[in-house]
Design brief:
The protein has 84 residues and is mainly α. It has two helices and no strands. The radius of gyration is 29 Å and the shape is rod-shaped.
């Protein structure tokens, strides 16, 4: 895990340096390479952060409501009637 962070930071710094040197010397291939490194690092960082967040699993209900639609709820003698 630590080597991934080191590679990420090194690639990000190299991309920033390439982009700035390419801009100073007006060499567009260096700028494109630096911009590609920076965008790649941002993309990889977002993928890593999304992979780290995992929502808790949904637990099924112990007494699901729709499985016993035609039966009365516990404690009732007959199902409720519609309209009256």
């Amino acid at each position: 895990m630590l080597w991934r962070v080191v590679v990420f930071v090194a690639a990000l710094l190299a991309g920033i340096a390439l982009f700035s040197v390419g801009g100073a010397w007006r060499m567009w291939p260096l700028q494109i390479a630096g911009l590609a490194l920076v965008i790649g690092c941002i993309f990889a960082g977002f993928r890593w952060s999304l992979r780290q967040y995992k929502p808790p699993p949904i637990k099924p209900a112990s007494n699901p409501a729709w499985s016993m639609r035609d039966e009365p709820a516990p404690g009732q003698s007959e199902p409720p009637t519609s309209g009256s």
